[in-house]
Write a structure and sequence with these properties.
heterotrimer, A alpha/beta (about 600), B alpha/beta (about 300), C alpha/beta (about 400), B: about 300 residues, alpha/beta, Rossmann fold, eight-stranded mixed sheet, 12 helices, C: about 400 residues, 2 domains, six-stranded mixed sheet, 16 strands
C-alpha cells in the first residue's frame, strides 16, 4: 500500500548531510577570511642577514652554508659550497688565523664553533677525490695573464677559470705555491696538502709557465699586448732594506731565505745559538723550525708581547716548544763576537705613545745598551714587493700597488691582488683579494661599468653573490650579534677542539702539529653552528604564528608570509632562533 | 632532520583572517588543537575570546562549532557526544568514522560561571576533550578578574592587585578521577601536541587540557613576546607542566635551573605595581609548591 | 492496537517520549517532575528505549545538552518544573533562536519565594517570550498524546521550533488515570526520525551554530523568521491534531477547544486542569438551568490563537478568564494576552473579567467556579467591568 504523504517521509530513507542547504540560523564557511593584514603597522620580512663569521672572513667563505651542509651530513653539498669560494680549503684550514671563530657568536655563549677545523676536515675528506669544479661557465674569449703562482695568483686563475676565462700564470720560481710552498714550515702545512690543491687548480686548464720572470724573460708590455687583461699577484719576496751596520756579515741571513732553504732541503749552517730579529709570523716560523733542528733560537723584539704582529697562538706554540723571546730590544749593530761568532748590540726600548698604526711606539730607554752573543743572526723583520717590472702608469701607493676597492689599478686592464697590496699579508686575504679582482675582471671584460656599480656597494665580493646563488642582505645591514638570536633554541653545548701534538713531541720533527677533528667530531662540531642570520628551516615562524600567515611554499620548499592576513605581531621575529626575520614599519620601502 | 613543523599536518583548519588580537595565544592554541584533532571534529565553544574567532562571520574554524551560552560548554560537549554515540549505534551515522567532540572555553567560563557544568561533565565522564583557554581574566569583556587571575595581578576590577590566589582548576578536575588531565604551555609545542594527541587517542571519557595563555592585551606586554612570556612562566616554576593519566601524576617538563619569579613578572605591565614584599611572597609560594612536589 | 495502563501524568509523558523514540534525554530531578526522570532512566537502562540518558548536574545544563544533542542531529527530550525552568531560562532563547525542535515537558510548579512544590502556571507562562511553542494539557492521556504530537509539530519544516508541553504538578503529574498507550509501529508511521535540513553539526558540512551577529547583521531577520514560523505553527498544530485523531482516534482541537458554545452568551476561558473542573460546572449549568454559558479551553499559549479567539469571542457578552497564575503589576497572563488579542478588533469585544485562582496549588472547587460562572452571567449586561482582575481566593486580607 502506498504510504500516505501526510504521514511524512519514510523513516527508512537514508540521506546524506552533504546535501543539506544552508539554513536560516547557521552559516557555512565563506571562501575568504577577513583581510586582517590591513591591521598591520609593523611588517615582518624573512630576510637573511650576514653571519658574523662571514662578515669577518677575509676571503668571503660561504661559512654558514658549508657548515650547515656538513652538519646535515651532506658532504657533497658542503664541498661544493666551500670550493665555490675557496680553492685552498686545506691550506686555509691549517694556516688561516680564523677571524671567523673570533667573531663567532657562540664564543659568548659557550665556545666558538671550530670553523677552521671543519674546513680542514672537509678538505682532508676529499683529499683522495679527483678534482671537480663546483661550476664552469661558458668559455669566454678573453685571455688573462696572471703574474705569480702564489695563492693569490693561483686563486685568481681558479676563479677566472670558473667564470670561463683562459689564463696563463707566469711564475718566476721553480715551483708554484708562493710563500706557503717555500716558507711555511711543514709542521703547519704538509706539502702534499698544498700540492694537491695546486694540482686541482691547474687541472681546470690553466697554463702555468715556471721559471719565467716578468721584467727579465718577458716585459710587461708583452703581457699588455698579448692578453686582454693582466692580474698582478707577484707577492712580496724582497727583504726590507735595513739600515743595520754589519748586516752583510757572514752568519747573518734573511728569514725568508732561511725558510726557503729549508724547503729546498739545503743544508743549514753550523751553529747552535741563533738570534731571530722580528716579531711577526716569519720570526716565529724561523724559530720553531730551528727548535726542530735542535738549535736554541731566541727572538728579539722591539716592543712587548702584546704588540707582536705574530698571531698569539703562534707565540704560545713557540714558547711552549722552548723558543725564548726577549722584549723591548732593537738591534743597533752587528759585530764580531768575542768567541768567533757574532755579537748583536741592541738598544733597550720602552713604550711611548701610539704610532700611525695605533700601536705604542718603542723609543730607546736612556741607559746602557744590551749585547748578545750568537752563532747566527736571522733577520725576519718583514718583506716588501718587487715592483720594478711595472711601468710608471701602474701607480704606487707607498711601496705597494695602488688599487681601488675591487683591485683595479690605475691602468684599467690591470688588476692586482695579494701581497702587492697594502693589506695584512695572510693567505686568506690574498685569496680574498684575488677573488674580488677576478669577479671585477669578469665584469670589466664583459663591458660592465664598474664605477657605476660603486654607488650600490661595488661589484660582488663573493662568487655566490656574483652568480646570484644567494641574495645578499641589505647593504649596510649589520652582522648578527648574540643578542639578536633567541637563545631559548640554542642550548649550550661544549665544543670539540682539534687534538694537537704535545710540545715535547712537536720538537722532534716536522710532523703536523694540529691533528684536526675526526669525522664524528667534525659532524658534531658543525652541528653547533647557530646559523646566525640564515634560515635553517626550524619552522618556528610557521609553528608560532597565531594567524597561520606563515606557510610553506611547495615550489621553493621555503617559508613565506601571507601579507593578506599577517597582523604584524612579531612573534615570528621574536622566536626566530637565527635572526632571519626583520620587522619594519609598514609602508616604508 | 624533521622538525615539529614538518611532522605536523600542513592543513590549517583555523583559517587565517580571524579577528583575535595580534599575538593572541588563542589563535595559536586553536591552530595546534585543530591540527591534532583534524577536521573530523565538533567544537562546543564556551564564553571566551576564541568565540569571536569561531562564531563571527566570516568565521574561521573549519569544523562545526556550537555556541550555547557562557556557562554550559561542558554540557554542550556532553550533548554532542551523546548524540554521536546514539546516532552511530542506531545506524543513523556511519559507525566506523571517529568524530572528535571537544570544547573550548575561557578560564572565567570554565572556572567560575560554568564550574558546575564542568564538574558535572567530569563526574559523568562525558566523552570529549575540554580545553580551557586560560588567559587569567575575563578578557573578552575588558580584563576583569576571574577565579583564575593570579595573585597580585592588576585587572580593571582589581586595580591594586588581586588579593586572592589563582584557582587551581586542573587539580579540581583531577579530583573527579577523569581519565586525563594535562597542563600545557604554548612555549613547549612538543609537549603540548603530545598531550593533545594522547587525549585524542584515548578511550572515550572526559579529558581536560588547561592551556596557559599569555595575553598581550590583558597582561600588558608587547605582542611579539607571547611565547617568551609563556616560556618564562614555566622556567620560573609558576606554571607547572604535568599530566594526570588515569590517576598517575607526572611532571613532563622540568626547567634545568628554575629562574627567579622576577624574570617573569618584570615583562608584564599587570605586575608593575608589585611591591618587593609581594614578589618575595610569590617566590616563596613557588618554592614551597615545588618542595611539596618533591622537586 | 494500543494497550491501557493506569499511569500518572508524569509516567504518561515519559511513555510519550519513549514512543517518540527520543535519542538523548538529559534530565535533572525536581519535584514534581522527578518521576519523568526516573521513568526515562528505567526505559533506557532496560533497553525499552535506545537512547542516551545524561544525568546532568543542573537544569541549565540539561537544556544545554539538549541543544547540543539536537544540533548534532538527535531527537532530544527533557522535563522540568518551577525553579528548574527559570534556571534554564537563558537557554530557552538559544534553543528557539537556533530553531531546534526540542520537546520539553513542563510540570508546572509555583515559583519561590515563598518556596512551594505545588502547581502554578507562572513558571511556564513566564517563558512565553522565549520563542517556544507552548501547549497546555489537562490530563495524563492528553499529556502522552501531546508529547508525540509535539515532535511532529516542532520538526515540521514549516515550524522548526522547540515545543513545551505543560501540565500542572501534583494534579496532573501525580494522579493515576487510565491511559491508552498507542502502538509503537503506528507511532513510528506518524513520527519519522528527525531529519535536520537546516542546521547540523557534522564535519562534512562545517558551520557555526548559534553565532554572533553584530550591529546591522541579521538579528532582526532571525526574529522575524521565528515569528513567521510561529504564525505557521497555528495551522500546523491544527493539522497535526487532525492527523493524530485520524491515526489514533483522539483529537483535542488544536490551538483551543471550544466546548458547549451553542447559544452561549458568556464563556469561561481557562487552561490546564481548571478546564476539567470548569467543564463540569458549565455542563451542569446548561443542563440543569439552561444557562447560556460555554467553555473555551485554551491549549496554545504560544502561538496565541488571536484569530480563532477573536472569531469565537465576538458576539459574546462577557468572558471570565480563570487562570492559575499572575503577573504582578498587571494581572493574569492569559487575560492580558486576550486583551491584546481582542484590542485588534473586530468589535464588539466581550467584557473580560480575570479571576486569579489556584496559585501555589490552592484547590479550586466546583463551588468557586460556579460562583464565578453566575457572576459573569450576571455581569453580561453591565456597561463596564468594575474590577477586571479579581482575587476571589484571598483569605484574611482586604
Amino acid at each position: 500500500m502506498a504510504r500516505s504523504k501526510a504521514l511524512g517521509p519514510d523513516p527508512q530513507e537514508s540521506y546524506s548531510y552533504l546535501e543539506l542547504p544552508i539554513g536560516s540560523t547557521a552559516v557555512g564557511m565563506p571562501a575568504q577570511g577577513r583581510p586582517t593584514g590591513l591591521w598591520r603597522y609593523l611588517r615582518p620580512r624573512l630576510q637573511a642577514r650576514i653571519p658574523p663569521c662571514q662578515e669577518a672572513c677575509p676571503l668571503g667563505n660561504w661559512i654558514q652554508r658549508f657548515v650547515a651542509a656538513a652538519a646535515a651530513d651532506d658532504l657533497a653539498g658542503a664541498w661544493w659550497a666551500l670550493r665555490l669560494e675557496n680553492p685552498f680549503p686545506g691550506l686555509c684550514g691549517r694556516v688561516c688565523y680564523h677571524p671567523c671563530q673570533e667573531a663567532c657568536n657562540r664564543r659568548d655563549l659557550d665556545q666558538a664553533t671550530s670553523i677552521r677545523a671543519i674546513e680542514r676536515h672537509l678538505a682532508d675528506r676529499h683529499f683522495d677525490q679527483p678534482p671537480r669544479p663546483p661550476l664552469v661557465r661558458d668559455k669566454q674569449s678573453a685571455r688573462v695573464a696572471v703574474v705569480g703562482a702564489g695563492p693569490a695568483g693561483l686563486a685568481g686563475a681558479y676563479f677566472l677559470a670558473l667564470l670561463g676565462y683562459q689564463s696563463t700564470v707566469f711564475e718566476a720560481g721553480r715551483e708554484p705555491g708562493g710563500i706557503p710552498q717555500t716558507a711555511i714550515p711543514a709542521y703547519r702545512l704538509p706539502r702534499r696538502v698544498l700540492n694537491k690543491e695546486i694540482q686541482d687548480i691547474l687541472a681546470l686548464g690553466i697554463d702555468l709557465r715556471l721559471g719565467c720572470r716578468i721584467g727579465r724573460d718577458l716585459t710587461f708590455a708583452d703581457l699588455l699586448a698579448g692578453y686582454e687583461a693582466v692580474l698582478l699577484a707577484s707577492g712580496a719576496q724582497l727583504s726590507p732594506a735595513l739600515d743595520l751596520p754589519g748586516q752583510d756579515s757572514p752568519g747573518v741571513f734573511q728569514g725568508l731565505d732561511f725558510l726557503q732553504g729549508r724547503h729546498f732541503d739545503e743544508p743549514v749552517d753550523r751553529g747552535q745559538r741563533i738570534l731571530v730579529i722580528g716579531g711577526g709570523n716569519a720570526a716565529i716560523d724561523v724559530s720553531r723550525t730551528l727548535i726542530r733542528l735542535g738549535r736554541s733560537p731566541a727572538i728579539l723584539y722591539r716592543r712587548t708581547r702584546s704588540e707582536m704582529p705574530a698571531h698569539p697562538a703562534e707565540i704560545e706554540d713557540a714558547l711552549a716548544e722552548g723558543v725564548e723571546i726577549h722584549y723591548l730590544l732593537a738591534p743597533t749593530a752587528i759585530r764580531e763576537g768575542r768567541t768567533g761568532g757574532l755579537s748583536l748590540e741592541c738598544a733597550r726600548m720602552e713604550l711611548a705613545g701610539p704610532d700611525s698604526s695605533g700601536r705604542p711606539r718603542a723609543v730607546p730607554r736612556p741607559g746602557p745598551s744590551a749585547s748578545f752573543e750568537a752563532d747566527q743572526i736571522i733577520l725576519a723583520a718583514g718583506q716588501r714587493p718587487d715592483l720594478a717590472y711595472l711601468p710608471p702608469e701602474v701607480e704606487r701607493a707607498g711601496d705597494r700597488v695602488r688599487v681601488n676597492d675591487w683591485g683595479q689599478t690605475s691602468l684599467a686592464r690591470v688588476f692586482a691582488c695579494g701581497d702587492v697590496l697594502d693589506q695584512p699579508w695572510t693567505v686568506t686575504r690574498a685569496v680574498g683579494s684575488a677573488k674580488r679582482a677576478a669577479i671585477a675582471l669578469d665584469l670589466f671584460l664583459r663591458g660592465e661599468d664598474l664605477a657605476g656599480l660603486a654607488a650600490s656597494g661595488g661589484p660582488p665580493r663573493t662568487m655566490r653573490e656574483h652568480l646570484g646563488l644567494e641574495e645578499s642582505s641589505r647593504p649596510g645591514s649589520p652582522a648578527v650579534t648574540l643578542a639578536d638570536l633567541n637563545l631559548a633554541y640554542c642550548p649550550s653545548r661544549p665544543g670539540r677542539e682539534p687534538e694537537r701534538l704535545a710540545p715535547e713531541e712537536r720538537r722532534r720533527d716536522f710532523s703536523e702539529v694540529d691533528l684536526g677533528l675526526d669525522e664524528a667530531a667534525a659532524l658534531e662540531e658543525a652541528g653547533r653552528c647557530l646559523s646566525c642570520g640564515v634560515c635553517r628551516m626550524c619552522g618556528n615562524c610557521y609553528l608560532f604564528c597565531p594567524d597561520g600567515a606563515v606557510r610553506l611554499v611547495t615550489e621553493t620548499g621555503r617559508y613565506a608570509i601571507d601579507y593578506d592576513y599577517c597582523k604584524g605581531c612579531g612573534i615570528c621575529q621574536n622566536e626566530c632562533p637565527v635572526a632571519a626575520i626583520t620587522m619594519e614599519t609598514e609602508g616604508e620601502v | 632532520m624533521k622538525t615539529l613543523a614538518d611532522k605536523l599536518t600542513r592543513d590549517e583548519p583555523l583559517r587565517p583572517g580571524h579577528p583575535l588580537c595580534p599575538g593572541c595565544p588563542g589563535g595559536l592554541m586553536l591552530r595546534w588543537v585543530s591540527k591534532s584533532l583534524g577536521r573530523d571534529s565538533i567544537c562546543n565553544v564556551g564564553a571566551t575570546c576564541l568565540a569571536i574567532a569561531t562564531m563571527v562571520y566570516p568565521h574561521s574554524l573549519a569544523v562545526p562549532c556550537l555556541y550555547i551560552a557562557m556557562a554550559p560548554s561542558p554540557a554542550g560537549m556532553a550533548g554532542t557526544s551523546a548524540a554521536l554515540k546514539v546516532l552511530q549505534r542506531k545506524g543513523r551515522l556511519p559507525a566506523g568514522r571517529k568524530i572528535h567532540s571537544f570544547a573550548v572555553s575561557g578560564d572565567g567560563s570554565a572556572g567560575d560561571i560554568g564550574l558546575a557544568a564542568l564538574s558535572g561533565a567530569a563526574e559523568r565522564n562525558d566523552d570529549g576533550i575540554y580545553f580551557v583557554f586560560d588567559n587569567e581574566a575575563y578578557m573578552n569583556t575588558g580584563i576583569q578578574r576571574s577565579g583564575c587571575t593570579p595573585q597580585y595581578s592588576w585587572t580593571t576590577s582589581t586595580l591594586q592587585g588581586k588579593p586572592e590566589r589563582k584557582k587551581d582548576l586542573p587539580r579540581i578536575v583531577a579530583a573527579h578521577d577523569v581519565p586525563y588531565v594535562a597542563t600545557v604551555s604554548l612555549a613547549y609545542p612538543e609537549d603540548f601536541l603530545a598531550k593533545v594527541d594522547k587525549a585524542r587517542d584515548m578511550e572515550p571519557g572526559f579529558k581536560y587540557v588547561h592551556v596557559h595563555s599569555p595575553c598581550p592585551t590583558g597582561w600588558r606586554f608587547p605582542e611579539n613576546k607571547t611565547i617568551e612570556v609563556a616560556r618564562l612562566a614555566v622556567e620560573t616554576g609558576l606554571w607547572i607542566l604535568y599530566e594526570v593519566d588515569h590517576g598517575e601524576m607526572r611532571i613532563t617538563q622540568r626547567p634545568a635551573r628554575r629562574r627567579p619569579v622576577e624574570d617573569y613578572l618584570r615583562l608584564q605591565g599587570r605586575f608593575s605595581g608589585l611591591s618587593q614584599e609581594n614578589v618575595r611572597r610569590l617566590q616563596e609560594s613557588v618554592d614551597r609548591k615545588w618542595a611539596e612536589l618533591g622537586l | 492496537m494500543g494497550s491501557r495502563k493506569m499511569l500518572t501524568g508524569n509516567y504518561a509523558a515519559a511513555h510519550g517520549a519513549r514512543l517518540a523514540r527520543v535519542e538523548v534525554a538529559p534530565v535533572y530531578p525536581i519535584t514534581p517532575q522527578t518521576h519523568i526522570m526516573e521513568k526515562m532512566a528505567e526505559f533506557i537502562e532496560s533497553g525499552a528505549l535506545d537512547a542516551e540518558f545524561v544525568a546532568v548536574e543542573s537544569e541549565h545544563s540539561a537544556l544545554a545538552v539538549a541543544i547540543a544533542a539536537q544540533a548534532t542531529g538527535a531527537r532530544t527530550f527533557t522535563a522540568t518544573s518551577g525553579q528548574g525552568l527559570v534556571y534554564m531560562h537563558e537557554n530557552l532563547f538559544v534553543a528557539s533562536g537556533i530553531r531546534l525542535p526540542i520537546v520539553m515537558v513542563i510540570v508546572s510548579r509555583a515559583l519561590g519565594a515563598p518556596t512551594s512544590i505545588c502547581p502554578d502556571l507562572a513558571d511556564a507562562l513566564d517563558q512565553r517570550d522565549t520563542g517556544w511553542i507552548q501547549l497546555h494539557v489537562e490530563n495524563a492521556q492528553e499529556a502522552l498524546d501531546m508529547v508525540i504530537q509535539a515532535y511532529r509539530i516542532g520538526e515540521d519544516k514549516r515550524v522548526l521550533l522547540p515545543v513545551a508541553v505543560c501540565f500542572e504538578g501534583i494534579i496532573v503529574s501525580h494522579y493515576l488515570e487510565p491511559v491508552e498507550l498507542p502502538d509503537q509501529a503506528r507511532v513510528d508511521r506518524f513520527l519519522p526520525p528527525y531529519r535536520p535540513e537546516h542546521v547540523i553539526l557534522h564535519p562534512d558540512r562545517p558551520m557555526a551554530v548559534g553565532q554572533v551577529v553584530m550591529d546591522d547583521a541579521y538579528y532582526t531577520e532571525y526574529r522575524f523568521q521565528q515569528q513567521e514560523a510561529m504564525e505557521r505553527a497555528k495551522e500546523v498544530i491544527g493539522q497535526v491534531d487532525e492527523l493524530f485523531g485520524r491515526t489514533f482516534g483522539r483529537r483535542y482541537g488544536g490551538l483551543l477547544s471550544a466546548e458547549m458554545m451553542d447559544g452561549a452568551e458568556v464563556a469561561l476561558l481557562t487552561l490546564g486542569s481548571l478546564a476539567a473542573t470548569a467543564r463540569s460546572v458549565v455542563e451542569r449549568l446548561r443542563r440543569e438551568e439552561g444557562r447560556p454559558i460555554g467553555l473555551i479551553k485554551l491549549r496554545a499559549v504560544r502561538p496565541f490563537p488571536d484569530e480563532a479567539l477573536r472569531e469565537l469571542l465576538s458576539g459574546l457578552k462577557a468572558v471570565a478568564v480563570l487562570e492559575r497564575d499572575v503577573s504582578i503589576g498587571a494581572g493574569g497572563v492569559v487575560y492580558t494576552e486576550l486583551c491584546r488579542s481582542l484590542a485588534a478588533g473586530p468589535g464588539p469585544a466581550p467584557r473580560l473579567i480575570n479571576y486569579i485562582m489556584g496559585l501555589g496549588g490552592r484547590d479550586v472547587t466546583l463551588e468557586e467556579i460556579r460562583d464565578i460562572a453566575l457572576a459573569v452571567l450576571d455581569q453580561r449586561e453591565a456597561a463596564a467591568v468594575s474590577q477586571p482582575v479579581r482575587w476571589p481566593q484571598v483569605r484574611g486580607l482586604k
